[in-house]
Amino acid sequence: MEIEISSCKHLMYVSEIQQEMYDSAQRRGTGIAKRSIEYLSGKILSGNAVVATENGEWVGFCYIETWSHGQFVANSGLIVSPKFRNNGAATKIKHRVFELSREKYPNAKVFGLTTGLAVMKINSDLGYRPVIYSELTQDEEFWNGCKNCVNYDILMKKERKNCLCTAMLFVPDHDKVNIKAGNTQPEKEYKNEINREKFEFSEPKESGGFQMTINNKKDTDEKESNLSV
Asked: What's the pTM?
């Protein structure tokens, strides 16, 4: 499997990616904001996505969004083709798009909203922690993107304080982001920036809450059925 920063050569997969995003949300009975072909194509052409392929077939996809004038970054739309699930592909893609986000926006907070238990566990391994919605970007354009989600009414009834998605946030430790002389890219020390306790999550409930316990075991659940963020 090859995981690459997106470019024009990956446009051939965009229709399949969009359709699988939609189908995945339908199978889970929850919703993610629907993205147009044009929107996903723009992410691919700008190099703000990663695409995994194998023998000419697309394996998985995830893209970067920036909010609040670059203060926040979201790694969105994580999806793995059904044919390639349950082999660690989602974890590798999520790690690569996280690295790309940190390289492009080293000072930004990285966040995600997800109903997927496997995604929560991957995020936890990367240093994300569960937070309340008020700690995320308050950019109206971001929240407008939820209008296509089947759970949008729940979000609005709760005054955008919570929903079925769990909010997770990575905050860079600026004391440990070192810039080498003559190099504008930060050293990849972010993996050690946050105390690495493990969190176990229960499935999210309609109340918008989640249950969490600390677990110091190293193993990660790599179940990747119906993944998305």
From this structure: 0.74
Out of 6-10, 133-137, 219-223, pick the least confident. Answer: 219-223
3-state secondary structure of 84: helix
How would you write 130-189 as a 3-class SS string? Answer: EECHHHCCCCHHHHHHHHHCCCHHHHHHCCCCCCCCEEEEECCCHHHCCECCCCCCECCC
For 94-100, the CB contacts below 8 A with 24+ separation are 94/62, 94/119, 94/122, 94/123, 94/126, 95/122, 95/126, 96/3, 96/50, 97/49, 97/50, 97/62, 97/63, 97/64, 98/126, 98/170, 99/188, 100/5, 100/48, 100/50, 100/64
Which residues does 15 contact at the CB level (< 8 Å), separation at least 6? 37
Distances from the Cα of 76 to the Cαs of 112, 119, 135, 159, 165, in angstroms? 7, 11, 18, 23, 13
Distance CA 51, CA 58 (A): 7
Q: Residue 32 — pLDDT band, cuts 50, 70, 90?
A: low
Angle, CA of 93, 75 and 59, to the nearest 5° = 30
pLDDT > 90? residue 55? yes
Describe the crossing of helices 37-45 and 14-28 by its angle, rounded to 10 degrees.
120
CB-based contacts of 214: which residues, under 8 Å, 6+ apart?
A: 197, 198, 199, 200
> Is the sign of the CA dihedral 219, 25, 93, 166 positive or negative?
negative
3-class SS of residue 34: coil
Half-sphere exposure of 90 (CA within 13 A, CB side): 29
